[in-house]
Amino acid sequence: MGKQRLAFLSDFVEAITRRTRGAPGEAETLKALSRPPSERIKAACSVLMGRIGDASRVAVAEQALAAYAELSPDEKQAFFELLRDSYGVVPDQIRSAYAAWENKPDADAVAALFRVVEPARQTLLRRLNLAPGATLQLVRMREDLLSAIRKDPSLEPIDQDFAHLLASWFNRGFLTMRRIDWNAPAAILEKIMAYETVHRMQGWPDLRRRLAANDRRLYAFFHPATGDEPLIFVEVALTTGIPTAIGPILNAPEAAAPVEADTAVFYSINNSLAGLKGVSFGNFLIKQVVAVLSSELSNLRCYVTLSPVPGFARWLSSQTDDRAVALAKALSDPAWQNDPAKAEALRPEVEAIAARYIVTERTSANLPPDPVARFHLGNGAQAHRLNWPADFAPSALKAAHGLMINYLYEVAEIEAQHEAFVRDGTVAHGAQLAEALAR
Amino acid sequence: MGKQRLAFLSDFVEAITRRTRGAPGEAETLKALSRPPSERIKAACSVLMGRIGDASRVAVAEQALAAYAELSPDEKQAFFELLRDSYGVVPDQIRSAYAAWENKPDADAVAALFRVVEPARQTLLRRLNLAPGATLQLVRMREDLLSAIRKDPSLEPIDQDFAHLLASWFNRGFLTMRRIDWNAPAAILEKIMAYETVHRMQGWPDLRRRLAANDRRLYAFFHPATGDEPLIFVEVALTTGIPTAIGPILNAPEAAAPVEADTAVFYSINNSLAGLKGVSFGNFLIKQVVAVLSSELSNLRCYVTLSPVPGFARWLSSQTDDRAVALAKALSDPAWQNDPAKAEALRPEVEAIAARYIVTERTSANLPPDPVARFHLGNGAQAHRLNWPADFAPSALKAAHGLMINYLYEVAEIEAQHEAFVRDGTVAHGAQLAEALAR
Amino acid sequence: MGKQRLAFLSDFVEAITRRTRGAPGEAETLKALSRPPSERIKAACSVLMGRIGDASRVAVAEQALAAYAELSPDEKQAFFELLRDSYGVVPDQIRSAYAAWENKPDADAVAALFRVVEPARQTLLRRLNLAPGATLQLVRMREDLLSAIRKDPSLEPIDQDFAHLLASWFNRGFLTMRRIDWNAPAAILEKIMAYETVHRMQGWPDLRRRLAANDRRLYAFFHPATGDEPLIFVEVALTTGIPTAIGPILNAPEAAAPVEADTAVFYSINNSLAGLKGVSFGNFLIKQVVAVLSSELSNLRCYVTLSPVPGFARWLSSQTDDRAVALAKALSDPAWQNDPAKAEALRPEVEAIAARYIVTERTSANLPPDPVARFHLGNGAQAHRLNWPADFAPSALKAAHGLMINYLYEVAEIEAQHEAFVRDGTVAHGAQLAEALAR
Amino acid sequence: MGKQRLAFLSDFVEAITRRTRGAPGEAETLKALSRPPSERIKAACSVLMGRIGDASRVAVAEQALAAYAELSPDEKQAFFELLRDSYGVVPDQIRSAYAAWENKPDADAVAALFRVVEPARQTLLRRLNLAPGATLQLVRMREDLLSAIRKDPSLEPIDQDFAHLLASWFNRGFLTMRRIDWNAPAAILEKIMAYETVHRMQGWPDLRRRLAANDRRLYAFFHPATGDEPLIFVEVALTTGIPTAIGPILNAPEAAAPVEADTAVFYSINNSLAGLKGVSFGNFLIKQVVAVLSSELSNLRCYVTLSPVPGFARWLSSQTDDRAVALAKALSDPAWQNDPAKAEALRPEVEAIAARYIVTERTSANLPPDPVARFHLGNGAQAHRLNWPADFAPSALKAAHGLMINYLYEVAEIEAQHEAFVRDGTVAHGAQLAEALAR
Fold it and tell me: Domain Malonyl-CoA decarboxylase N-terminal, which positions (chains A, B, C, D) (predicted)?
């Protein structure tokens, strides 16, 4: 660290300290320093790791995050490189801690080794998190990081530290579930509208239809540190019988009172914050919603999804056996989309091949190739029924030739199916899929 | 793990799974198994670390915590021994991960090493924390652990893992401050009464006096995962001038409207949960209260504590120089407690020796020996004035010969004093202490 | 109105107006005027009835109520005399309005007559009610008035106006019912404790027992204009079977979870504000509580009171027939209170005479003489069972020789019993009373 | 009342009673009776006035209001005729009560007279108001009534009773003011959008602009009996300087933080419920908003409206003097709307004539002819400045040739101006209007 840099650093601390003493506010401090944000964030991180007190840390963490918010994409990339290169581990520290442990392998030696093996950026991120509102800002920083990694995979190690800390901060016990209806604050509803990407909303009336009706529900998880930000939400339709297509769910006029419905359909599950990738709540949310609905609506007998199959079309096009190739060819002519008879003729084969995709196909990690299937099967659900054609939205036609699946959440079977899936990769499936497989 | 144990384990998993499928409830499950809690908790922890899904983990974590709640003190001790011996690190794993890293010192190798150096109990505690209400139960478990460590210091390493995780879970950003007044739920007030140990409350009227009056305030921090549990709270008296004794604060009739007060006195700060030892909020709480009060009451000029000096009497009795010995002897005759003239005669010497105790005395870690002094000085406060005799409560007479101190929180000086204390151990102090030191 | 008075009045208006323009506050205004409250309230009322705008009225109404609060009991009496004599009707206005109506009996003429027949104090009270917090102050003013009427019955007409307006303001639709439990603000709990007069509470632990337990509930009505003031509340015990004495209800340790109870016992109903006498909510409260409990606790089969019989002893002592005289004599020897055998011997006769008191005895208005009986029978309940001896509290021994009654609220019978009671004075009663009557 | 009618009535009571006993629900009851709503409402009102208890009254009142909701416009008209003819006063009762009073003119006699002079429909309305949600339904009933009166003025007397009762129920002390912002429930925001008629909203983004911005506020009054129904609301823009036209207010992009604004502009005040006509809250709302804003935003110096002049065009067209006729002619050519120079040329004369309209013109009741002027002047505001052209909306061009006025609320002057307006009809006005008048 050069002399000039050091001088700036001490000015920086001086300025922050002065500010707390009643001198002019943040804006002035920064103007006085007149340094670009890329320098300010470096300085602030450096100060944060030094020997200063908790209270100063809060102020410095605020400065750091404020500077981060001003960075250009390139500067962010540079900042992540800094995190990779200067806030990792120090090999010599590891070596000497390891030697000390080999010499006397007691608990203190393990703890000392732990401290030097944990990358320094974990400490840095914890200290940044002291600033008011920091948690959400760090989630968004990770979103930037995930983009940056796509360009430069060598940044990947940083993400492990983010993932580790976010999993701890977004502990399931800190989440609260709330039903979102027409009495929810508009500020939250607006976010719901923006975050719905599975079946996009067409403005406020569509939103209203999805949460203010007798036969619709919407539930979301919130975290105290991210306030009114819905982290994940699920949209539920209360129906009679299991639906076989998404159109009627999205477009049906409001139905009678919910007490008559026998089925709850989870037709859209959305993770709101890309920066929370891999910190999974969906499992908990679905189970808590099932618990709430079953205590409120005693007529409900069946909890089921109506889910997309996002990987089907790509997988199909990659298959080389004759049946798959023939099917891909047949589907490539869009005539079936407007001709029910044609669709009906194709259906048995679509089901047969799709059943194979869901039930028997495996990735190199011995998992089903479809991400939505992995999610619901991993939760203990059963692949209950293939529906084709079920979704004519262009994106659904492109990704899955219009195919959708009902996954069934049967309370009495969830644990056993879940264990079987986790242990042996067994895909629980219903009679329709079994039959289709046998074709 | 013997054969019989394994059989029980599989029964256990089976039983939990069966339960979730709609079979009889928890009580029945356990009765059916008819195993003592000490076995059940071992089994549950073992299952938790195995390859089971999130949802099963919640159920098993609940079982584990329920079993823990039934353990006798001796069984708890045995459980902690289990955590120490079976949920630490595996030396051979460390050795081979280290070798791999030495061979190819990249980020993946560091991550692999990190995973084996982190004691397994951290993972275990994280998984226990999935159960509803687990966080508070784990805090109480740590309280037990701290007791256990006093008997068996070899358990100490476990506490490092608790401390590490609790610091992350009780991140400052997850806390919310609330003013507690006479409109607070009785359920919270009841806890406040129980947790106040600095100046104990004499029942509901005393409580009411401390929080429903024009000239009193009480603020507490809460955490979403521990609900209505006040984690720490501070009691504030609004006065004219800095008080020199606690009696008038505790016993004064309600004063005029708060707008006339020029001083806010923090006269009692209580950490509620022993299991959160070392996870410090006091610093943040005091600063947030100062911010709130100064925005509400524009007449306030001075923020000051009236604090006990818990280590004074013991320290004095350990001193061997003539002045200290003479003072200890003089104070041992309780006559001064009822004779103001005698007290007045002793006062200069009490102040002189007490100033030495606060300002110049140091522990081996180069810190002031008094824990309350360390807290406030570490927050950036100044040791403003010694008050003697100031507290005639038997506990205060015993611990500090009735001595109290005002620590002054001067916003404009806090950062500088804090930095000086952290960096050099400098104890900021007022004119009265400076003068007393010179005697 | 003398010249001096007029001068004061104009000063008064001037002062209020000046105050609103930013001149010194209320205290100064009044000190400047240096007039006693009895003059100030007269002046304010006079101004209120004059031609001033709404905004000025709010300020003047505040002045009037502030002055009222300073009046001595004698001055209040004088103020009520003023209301009686100067804020009634003007005979000549009635005469001419009547003549005009006789001349042309159209709707306008009726309206004109209505205006002059309505005592002026109704307008005055409505305008006083414009001040913030006025409603509660007017309720308390009526409480004073009811005391004053006991000394001077000629004030009675004023009360009709109060009763008329309060019935309108405390319309049932404006009330909200809240469950009060241990999470209620202490400020409300404190009032509950003060207002409970049927079975007095012995401090906070007793209060806690009555509302924080699994087998106890407390519900209250609130009105938006009186804020946290519980207007009426009912205490409920959840039991197995109908209780026959109050002791076990008040002293029993907390029972198992409420779901097992089959009976809800309304064992204490308290009207909090004496100034709301005759504005009845009890009927609505009980029915709403029945509705809430039956939707929450599906095991409940029976809704019943355990009620005092406050008029029994006095009535008994006034009876002159041989049986009653003999019973009164027997009860006057307190030996039965400690000797169950003696009590058992007396019981058949106590029941027989008490059944007569409840079922067949009538006042000159053809109603049952007991006020509590009138309330519950008027609500449509049935006099279900006499319990003797059931309450050994001194007040209960004095008022009712320890007698209590269960009134049964049977949803399917309420309307019919209520109509029969209102129409014909029929007292619905259970088999035990029927049998006792026949003795 | 014919025999058949009586039979129906007793069936009706029977049916209601049966229902409460657990027999089939409301729908069935009515179907069983198979009577049209016009008969059912008559029967229910008749029962309500009879000798039945409070609890039955609630059920019957519900039936009555349910039947009312089914009436066609013609049937409503017939129902109002019933209220007029059968629920008024009984002349013979008035005569005999009057005679009794003349005979013995004491308080009881006045009370008796009062009872017979009050039209029976007041009692009826009070009893209808016992039903849950009745208050809002009665407000809507009055809205229907006001329409009906326009067709048949002989119904007018009924409205006096409605007005009398609603004024009492919607007492200012029962109202609560709430700020409505982007965190308000969508269900309320939707109503705000529907009720805004002064400057209509163009959908959700427009709504958001008006209440979620730094420089906009919206405040509303609510009543406990009408729940989430905003009774009246005012929209406020925070600006620098007094605005002279509505366009910039409605279309300006969001401004800087509110602390910089020195002026609060009340640019739209809407009464939501036509059925509350004459029950005025606007006065209280404006004053409470002024109080809230001045305590929150210390920079505010000026509270002013930007108000329409709804009666100007019609008044102008009715004037016969040369200047007015000439101005009307000049304005009738819309060229000025697109040609600033032409508008500038016309402005002095528009201001002169408009000043006359506002300041000197009087109705037969000696009030200014403009209703908005009457409202603000009656509140004590000053007609501060004429703005022309200020509003190019078609409705504003039609009603006021685009004229708007700023009324100034100057706290120090409000009372005096209000008193002068009420007492003498004096219109407080600013220098610009004074000058224009002199032209």
Answer: 87-170
Beta bridge partners of A305: A266
Name every residue whose Cβ is closer than 8 Å to that of residue A252 and which is 6 or more positions away in sequence. none
Degrees, nearest 5: CA angle D305-D378-D403: 40
Distance from CA of B122 to the nearest CA of C (A): 35
One-character DSSP codes across B139-208: HHHHHHHHHHHHH-GGGHHHHHHHHHHHHHHT-GGG-EEEE--TTSBHHHHHHHHHH--SS---SHHHHH
Report the C-alpha gap between A409 and A383 in whole angstroms.
9
Mutate to test the interface with D, among A183, A188, A210, A211 (most CBs of D within 10 A): A183
Structural contact between residues C405 and C387, judged by C-beta atoms closer than 8 angstroms? yes
For residues C411 and C80, what is the distance between their CA atoms, to the nearest angstrom? 45
Q: What is the ipTM of this complex?
A: 0.81
Q: What is the pLDDT of residues D256-307, one digit of tens each?
A: 666 589 999 999 999 999 999 988 788 889 988 998 999 888 889 999 999 9
Residue whose tokens read 């601390």: A13
Contact: A185, D185; criterion CB under 8 Å = yes
> Of the candidates B155, B2, B148, which has an alpha carbon nearest to the alpha carbon of residue B85?
B155
Q: Which of C51, C89, C135 sits opposite D422 (nearest CB)?
A: C51
Q: Number of C to D CB contacts under 8 A, please give it.
A: 176
Q: In a 3-state reduction of DSSP, which class is residue A266?
A: strand
Query: Per 3-state DSSP, what percentage of chain B is helix, strand, and coil (rounded to 5)?
Result: 60, 10, 30
What one-character-per-residue DSSP string does A137-186 give? HHHHHHHHHHHHHHH-GGGHHHHHHHHHHHHHHT-GGG-EEEE--TTSBH
Q: Which residues contact C42 (CB under 8 A, 6 or more apart)?
A: C79, C82
Cβ-Cβ contacts under 8 Å, A285 against chain B? none
Contact D301, D263 (CB under 8 A): yes
Q: What share of chain D is helix, strand, coil (3-state, %, to 5)?
A: 60, 10, 30
Q: How far apart are CA A34 and CA C180, in angstroms?
A: 59
As a whole number of angstroms, the distance between CA B298 and CA B283 comes to 23
Would you write out chain A's pLDDT as a tens digit for each of its 439 residues? Answer: 344 544 555 566 555 554 444 433 444 444 446 689 999 999 999 989 987 766 678 888 999 999 999 999 999 999 999 999 999 999 999 999 999 999 999 988 999 999 999 999 999 999 999 888 899 999 999 999 999 999 999 999 999 999 999 998 998 878 889 999 999 999 999 999 999 999 999 999 999 999 988 899 999 999 988 889 999 999 999 999 999 999 999 998 887 665 589 999 999 999 999 999 988 788 889 989 998 999 888 889 999 999 999 999 999 999 999 999 999 999 999 999 999 999 999 999 999 999 999 999 999 988 999 999 999 998 889 999 999 999 999 999 999 999 999 999 998 888 889 888 988 889 999 999 999 999 8
* Cβ neighbours for A8, distance < 8 A, ≥ 6 positions apart: A33, A35, A39, A43
Which chain A residues touch D190 with a CB distance below 8 Å?
A: 182
* A189/D184 CB distance under 8 A: no
Place of tokens 């323009």: C21
Q: What is the pTM of this model?
A: 0.85
Q: Return the residue matching tokens 């522990």.
A: B363
DSSP C382-400: EEEEEESS---SHHHHHHH
For D165, nearest residue in chain C (alpha carbons): C168
Residue type, D275: G
From D156, D165, D287, residue closest to C55, measured CB to CB = D287
Is C185 close to B183, i.e. CB distance below 8 A?
yes
For C147-179, what is each residue's pLDDT tens digit? 999 999 999 999 999 999 999 899 887 888 999
Q: Check D55 against C160: CB less than 8 A apart.
A: no
